[in-house]
Design a protein that fits this description.
2 domains; mainly beta; 25-stranded mixed beta barrel; two-stranded parallel sheet; 6 helices; Porin; 9% helix; globular
Length: 554
C-alpha cells in the first residue's frame, strides 16, 4: 500500500457562503469552455481550486490581473472595466449578468471564483488589499511541497516542488496606473490564438462553441506541480491608455506583444524568438465582438524562412436558444514547431430549450437551470508530415444532450466518434450515459460508458456522496471490462482538493474509491481533513493507495 500524507497550513479566507456545494466543478468546466471536467488537465484544475479558495475581487483587480486570471476574455475584461467606469462597482452576480458579454449562466458559474468586494459601500475600509495570506502544503511521498504568500491584491510569491530537479516558482507584483505587473520565475505566455506562442494547457474539446476561440491571458504566474510548458525568466506588462505592451525574457526565448483595445475588441502584434537558436516568429491577431458576434483570427509567419500560418473563425448566437461557431486552421508542417501541421475545420452548434428549473437545495442567483441543453460538433483535419505530404487525416463527431428532469434529477447522454488513418486505433466509438440525483446535501450518480476500437469495452460506476459544511463523504464502485488498451475508457475519480485523477481503465476488473472530509470551525480558525482510499483490482491483482490531507485556515 502506498501511503501519502499531505499536511497543509492555509492562512487565507474561507470561500463565500453558499459556494461550498459540489457544483463548482461543473462551473469550472463552463468557465474554461469545456463540457466536462474530464477534458481539463491538472494545472487548470489547480488554478480553479485556488480561485475558489481565494476568489478574484472583480471590483479591485486591474486589467492585467483580470486578463491573467484566465476567467475572462479580452472583450469581457474591456466590458467589465467600461461598466465599472460608468456605473461603479458590481455588487452581485445578478448585476454581473447584466454586463455586456456575460449571460446569466456565465455569471452564475463565475460566482464560484470571483468576489464582489466593494470599497464604495458605507463603512467598508480598504482591508482586502492589505490582507496577507499564506498557504503551505507538504507531501511526505518524495520531496514535494507547495507554498504561496499573497499581499492583498498587490504582490505574491509561490513555489511548487514535485521533483527537486524542476521546481516551479514565481514572484509577482501588480502595479498601479500604467504598470500592470512584473513576474519573475515561472510563468505562462499566451497571446492571440497561439500561432506565435502559447504555453501550458490547450483545450481540445471543441464541443462548446466558446472553446473554438482561445482565451489569451498574456503573462500569468504559474503555480502548479506539473509546470508543463511554463517559461522561466522575467516578464512585465504595462498599459498606456488603449495601448498595452508586454515584454518577456526567459530560458525558453525572448518576446514582446503590443495590442490596441477598443470597446468591443482588441488587435495585437506578437514577436517571439524561441530558443535563441531558432528563427523568430511574428503574428498579428484580432478579437472583435460586433453586436454579439465574436470574430477571432491570427496570421503568423517565420519571415526568415518565408513560412505562413493562419487561424480564424466566429461564434454567433442564432436566435434565443442556439449558438454556433466555426474555426478554420491552416498551419503547414514547414511552419509548425510541432511534429505536424494542420489544415482543418470545425463547426459546433449548442442549443438550449424549455423552461428554467429551480435546483434542489439551491437558492439565490444561479439556483436554476434550463431543462434541455446540448451541443453537436464535427471536425476534419489534414495533418501534413514535414515535407508537405498530407497523408495523415482525422475526423471527429461529438454530441451531448443534458436533461434536467426535475429539480433533483438530471440525465446526460454523450456520443463521440473518431477516425484517423495513421495509427492502429483508426476508428473509435464511445457512448456514455449519466444519471444524477441531488437534494442539496446528498447526491447520487451512475454512469454506463461503452467504447469500441478494435474491440469492445464497457465501464459502469455508481456513487453516493454527502456534501456538508462539517462532514462530507463519497463512495464509488466501478466495474470495467475491455478487450485491451485500444478500447480503454477514461473516468474522473474524486480526490482531495487540488488533486486531479483521470485514470485509463482497460482489461477487466473493478475499483473502489472512498473520500471523506471533515471541517471544524473555532473562532477565526478552520481545521479540515481529507482522506482517500483508492483500490483497483484487475488481472488477479489488487493495488491499494491511501492519502491523507490536513489543512488549517486562519
Amino acid at each position: 500500500m502506498k501511503n501519502l500524507i499531505v499536511i497543509g497550513l492555509l492562512m487565507a479566507g474561507i470561500p463565500a457562503a453558499g459556494q461550498g456545494d459540489d457544483g463548482w466543478r461543473e462551473a469550472a468546466a463552463r468557465v474554461a469552455g469545456v463540457t466536462d471536467v474530464e477534458e481539463m488537465d491538472a494545472s487548470l484544475l489547480e488554478r480553479f481550486v485556488a480561485l475558489r479558495a481565494h476568489p478574484l475581487p472583480v471590483n479591485l483587480a486591474s486589467r492585467s490581473r483580470l486578463l491573467s486570471s484566465g476567467l475572462f476574455s479580452a472583450y469581457q475584461v474591456a466590458s467589465l472595466l467600461d461598466y465599472r467606469a460608468r456605473s461603479g462597482d458590481i455588487l452581485s452576480g445578478t448585476e454581473l449578468s447584466l454586463v455586456d458579454g456575460f449571460d446569466a449562466p456565465a455569471a452564475a458559474a463565475l460566482g464560484y471564483f470571483v468576489s464582489f468586494w466593494s470599497e464604495s459601500l458605507p463603512g467598508v475600509a480598504d482591508t482586502l488589499r492589505a490582507r496577507v495570506r499564506q498557504s503551505l502544503e507538504i507531501r511526505t511521498r518524495g520531496p514535494s511541497f507547495k507554498y504561496r504568500m499573497t499581499f492583498g491584491e498587490r504582490a505574491g510569491a509561490g513555489i511548487a516542488v514535485r521533483d527537486l530537479s524542476a521546481p516551479v516558482f514565481y514572484g509577482v507584483y501588480y502595479g498601479r496606473g500604467r504598470l500592470g505587473k512584473v513576474v519573475a520565475g515561472s510563468f505562462n505566455v499566451r497571446f492571440g490564438q497561439g500561432l506565435a506562442l502559447w504555453s501550458g494547457f490547450v483545450i481540445d474539446d471543441m464541443l462548446s462553441p466558446s472553446a473554438l476561440a482561445r482565451r489569451a491571458g498574456g503573462i500569468s504566474p504559474s503555480w502548479s506541480y506539473t509546470g508543463d510548458g511554463t517559461w522561466r525568466g522575467i516578464g512585465a506588462d504595462a498599459l498606456f491608455g488603449r495601448l498595452d505592451v508586454s515584454l518577456f525574457a526567459a530560458a525558453e526565448g525572448l518576446g514582446a506583444n503590443a495590442g490596441w483595445s477598443w470597446r468591443s475588441g482588441r488587435a495585437g502584434l506578437t514577436a517571439v524568438w524561441p530558443g535563441y537558436g531558432r528563427f523568430p516568429r511574428l503574428s498579428m491577431d484580432v478579437r472583435w465582438n460586433p453586436r454579439g458576434v465574436q470574430l477571432f483570427g491570427e496570421v503568423a509567419s517565420e519571415p526568415v524562412q518565408g513560412h505562413f500560418a493562419a487561424v480564424g473563425g466566429l461564434i454567433a448566437p442564432i436566435g434565443e436558444h442556439l449558438r454556433a461557431g466555426v474555426r478554420l486552421t491552416a498551419v503547414p508542417s514547414a511552419y509548425s514547431h510541432k511534429k505536424n501541421g494542420e489544415y482543418g475545420a470545425v463547426a459546433t452548434l449548442s442549443f438550449q430549450a424549455g423552461r428554467y428549473v429551480t435546483l434542489k437545495g439551491r437558492s439565490g442567483f444561479g439556483a436554476s437551470e434550463i431543462r434541455h441543453r446540448g451541443a453537436l460538433s464535427a471536425s476534419f483535419s489534414a495533418l501534413p508530415v514535414p515535407g508537405g505530404e498530407a497523408g495523415r487525416m482525422m475526423e471527429k463527431v461529438k454530441f451531448l444532450w443534458q436533461w434536467r428532469v426535475s429539480p433533483s434529477v438530471r440525465l446526460e447522454a454523450r456520443f463521440q466518434q473518431r477516425w484517423r488513418n495513421y495509427s492502429n486505433e483508426r476508428l473509435r466509438f464511445e457512448l456514455r450515459t449519466d444519471a444524477g440525483w441531488s437534494d442539496g446535501t446528498w447526491t447520487a450518480a451512475a454512469r454506463l460508458h461503452g467504447a469500441w476500437c478494435d474491440g469492445g469495452g464497457i465501464l459502469s460506476y455508481a456513487e453516493l456522496a454527502r456534501n456538508g459544511r462539517l462532514f462530507s463523504a463519497l463512495v464509488r464502485g466501478t466495474f470495467f471490462y475491455t478487450d485491451g488498451w485500444a478500447s480503454r475508457i477514461y473516468a474522473y475519480e474524486r480526490d482531495a482538493p487540488g488533486n486531479f485523477n483521470v485514470p485509463a481503465y482497460y482489461g477487466h476488473g473493478g475499483a473502489l474509491n472512498l473520500v471523506a472530509g471533515t471541517r471544524v470551525d473555532w473562532r477565526h480558525c478552520t481545521f479540515r481533513t481529507w482522506t482517500r482510499l483508492y483500490i483497483i483490482w484487475k488481472g488477479g491483482g489488487m493495488t491499494p493507495a491511501l492519502s491523507i490531507q490536513i489543512a488549517l485556515t486562519v
